[in-house]
Amino acid sequence: MTHQPVLSIQNLHVEYTARRGKVKAVRDVSFDVFPGETVAVIGESGCGKTTLALALVRLLARSAKITGGKVLFQGGKYSAPIDVLRLNRRQLRAFRWRNCAMVFQSALNALNPVLKVSAQVQDTARAHGEHDAKQIEERALWLFQQVRLDPRRVYDAYPHELSGGMRQRVLLALGLLLDPQVVILDEPTTALDVLTQRTIIEVLKRLREEMGFALIFISHDLSMAAELAHRIVTMYAGNIVEIGQVNEVFYQPKHPYTLGLMRAVPNLSGQRTDLISIHGSPPDLIDPPHGCAFAPRCAYVQPICHQQAPPLEMRATDHASACHFWDQLPILREMPALQPKAID
Amino acid sequence: MTNSTPILALEGVHKHFKAGRNTIRVLQDVSLSVTQGEIVCLVGESGCGKTTTGKIIAGLSSPTMGKVFFEGQDVRHLSGEAFNAYRRAVQIVHQDPYASLNPTQTLYRMLSFPLFRHRMVRTQSEARARVLELLQLVDLTPPEDFIDKFPHQLSGGQRQRVSIARALTVNPRLIVADEPVSMVDVSIRVSLLNTLSDLQRRLNLTFVFITHDLAVARYFAWEGRIAVMYLGRIVELGSAPEVTAQPQHPYTRALITSLPEPDPQLTRNKQRIGLRSEDIPSLLRIPNGCAFHPRCPWHVPTVCDVALPELARTESSSLAACHVTAQTAQHAAALAAQAQESN
Do residues B284 and B239 both lie within one domain? Predict the structure, then answer.
């Protein structure tokens, strides 16, 4: 991956103002996303993953403030990196959807119930300066076909006539309407049934290949991440605690929190292994603990962990973690000889 | 398990709901028997009838047709003390710990109410001692720190433990747990499951565990059974290891091959089976014959869309309701018989 990242997040900080004080929801987060790459951001609820996603397209709630950092985007009409955080309203409007589309979690609420799907497609396109209704319709029908919907029927339907899985696919197609370079998916398959989830996964795999967009998906579902991602970002208490290539992170995690997550998920095939939970609960982000935020729950904790926050550093090829004792963690599984298909 | 009478049995249970002029057939001909101390997982997608089955077992809903037996007695004919005994013996743990606990009551009030109601304690101090014991049982320790708290002071996982403690107040023998871990985070899910397993062993409880997650079902019911439901019917029933390792019904097979797994190599190299249709039919228009036939990759025209398959023996020790597997099983049996004869 010698080329430029399509999105480069640098030292991003986001805070919410609450009655008790400032909630430091995203703390010093940096990572790059390359064209065509899929990055999964995993972590438990409250770890800051949704806040991070919203910050990337500046859709944060009014109580939230980006207190530092840069989000550099390069692609589409921008041949040199621009800082998304410095765009004015008009530029931002153009950036969203055309360069970076966000597909939200609750497909049931994201569509306007009183408008036909066709109207919502046309509205979106017009708002972004596309006025050729015929051409937009053709594009939408093609996209509906791609996401395995009956194009004509869905185009002329009201949202309530569609099932949850169908609506989720409509949203996905709508997100891709303007051929964005980056697509952000927030929990794309929660609340969907297994077979519908499988359809979405297959559709995503095909479309990203065909359309070449980079995909950032936010999920607490490790299995989804294992299936779709090229790289994994683990977040804990607003920080990135581990980032690396998918096999590296799954088979040889170098942060005890990631290791804990891996050991807590039941598998379906192969040996039934006893699962181990991570005891305790995530820290208060108004007053995060001193040193490593995971220390109070960590099985490998040492005195230094309570005093000094470990930096996020490279521990193996393209694999960084923020742990003082990363080299003492057990290897979960031998790394397979075969790497998942690399992206070029 | 010396007693051969199952603790609970459903026989030909149907449940219909009226919606305007339409009748929604939520459950059709569900039969299931559960023995004392057993774990049975009901698995299926939304709308398959698993929650309704749970409610009927717990006596919160009554079947439109069919019978429910508790320790050999038809629950419809129970009255007075016998009915109360059944209601005490079967308790339910609901899915959403944010909705199922009264926000205005402390844990003590919540947990002591049923104790007084069922005259299991007489004085406040007896009640307090019993509540402390219950909190200890569900690993809310030290219990003294929790007993006077309100639900809003607890995390989701802790609330779900309170729900479990509440179900345990009246010394039940069978617990219906309806998606008890689906609303809590990954790291907490396991400890809740382990607590439930622990209680099952220590108190010799019987569990009907409802989940949409086959991996959770396999983990929890490893020594028990899994019943896979589809559009109101049980389509496969067998031991958990067998159902997950050698699924017999094409629907079970589709579920298992569709599920991603937390292992990048494994999940990417899994053989998938394709379905003929993506979308689940409406409960208002359940397909004729086998309800799965419009989606089934093994569909045999004029057989599957006409005749309803019954739960029958298969090549494995599970039961499955599928014409195709039934035929393969018959074929295999015939071959085996032939082989025996020629020996």
Answer: no
What pLDDT score was predicted for residue A58? 94
Say yes or no to pLDDT of A272 above 80: yes
Query: Among residues 248-287 of chain B, which lie with CB inside 8 Å of chain A?
Result: 254-256, 258-268, 272, 275, 278-280
Residue A104's pLDDT band (cuts 50, 70, 90): confident
Query: CA B192 from chain center: how many Å?
Result: 16
Least confident residue range of A46-55, A294-303, A333-342, B112-121: A333-342
Residue A337 lies in a domain: no
Residue A313 shares a structural domain with residue A259: yes
Cβ contacts of A267 on chain B, cutoff 8 Å: 215, 261-263
Non-local (6+) Cβ contacts of A153 within 8 A are none
Write out chain A residues lying below 8 Å of B161, CB-based. Answer: none
Model confidence at B181: pLDDT above 60: yes
- Give chain B's count of helices (H) and strands (E): 12, 12
Do the chains contact at A220 and B185, CB–CB below 8 Å? yes
Average confidence (pLDDT) over A270-289: 86
Domain boundary among B245, B277, B293: B245
Q: Which one of B45, B188, B261 has the shortest CB-CB distance to A194?
A: B45
Confidence of residue A342 (pLDDT cuts 50, 70, 90): very low
Nearest to A268 among B189, B215, B222 (CB): B215
DSSP H helices, chain B, are: 50-57, 80-89, 107-117, 124-137, 143-146, 156-168, 186-203, 214-220, 240-245, 250-258, 264-268, 323-342
User: How many whole angstroms separate alpha carbon B162 and alpha carbon B157?
Assistant: 9
CB pairs under 8 A between A and B: 125
Per residue in B52-101, pLDDT (tens digit) is: 999 999 999 999 999 999 999 999 999 889 998 999 999 999 988 888 99
Minimum-distance CB partner of B219 among A195, A227, A266: A266
Tell me which of A195, A229, A263 is where a domain ends: A229
* Three-class SS of B199-216: HHHHHCCEEEEEECCHHH
Q: Which of residues 177-196 of A touch B (CB under 8 A)?
A: 193-196
Q: Which amino acid is at B147?
A: I
pLDDT confidence of residue A108: 67
B192, B285: one domain: no
What is the residue range of A281's domain? 235-328
User: Domain check: are B152 and B257 in the same one?
Assistant: no
**ipTM value of the model?**
0.86
- Contact with chain A for residue B149, Cβ under 8 A: no
Q: What's the pLDDT at A271?
A: 82
Q: Which of A221, A224, A281 sits opposite B155 (nearest CB)?
A: A281
A209 and A90, same domain (yes or no): yes
pLDDT tens digits along A324-333: 999 999 888 8
Using CB atoms within 10 Å of the CB of residue B271, give its burial: 0 to 12 exposed, 13 to 18 middle, 19+ buried.
Answer: exposed
For residues A34 and A153, state if they share a domain: yes
Which of B197, B257, B267 to probe by mutation at the A interface, max A CB count within 10 Å? B267
Looking at CA atoms only, how far is residue B263 from chain A in angstroms? 6
Residue B297 lies in a domain: yes
For β-strands B206-211 and B174-178, DSSP reports them as parallel
Q: Is the model's pLDDT at B2 over the cut of 50? A: no
Nearest CA in chain B to A229: B264
The answer to whether the Cα torsion of A71, A72, A75, A77 is positive or negative is: positive
B187, B213, B245 — which closes off a domain? B245
Pick the residue from chain A with its C-alpha nearest to B254.
Answer: A195
Q: Count up the domains in chain B and report the number.
A: 2
Separation in Å, CA of A231 to nearest CA in chain B = 11
Count up the domains in chain A and report the number. 2
| A58 reaches B (C-beta below 8 A) | no
Q: Domain for residue B1, yes or no?
A: no
A263 and A205 within one domain = no
Q: Are residues B147 and B226 in the same domain?
A: yes
Q: What is the mean pLDDT of residues A220-238?
A: 94
Q: Give the pLDDT of residue B343.
A: 65
Which of A175, A196, A229 finishes a domain?
A: A229
- Domain with B221 in it: what CATH number? 3.40.50.300
Instruction: With cut-offs at 50, 70 and 90, classify the pLDDT of residue B1.
Output: very low
Structural domain containing residue B39: 8-245
Sequence length of chain A is: 344
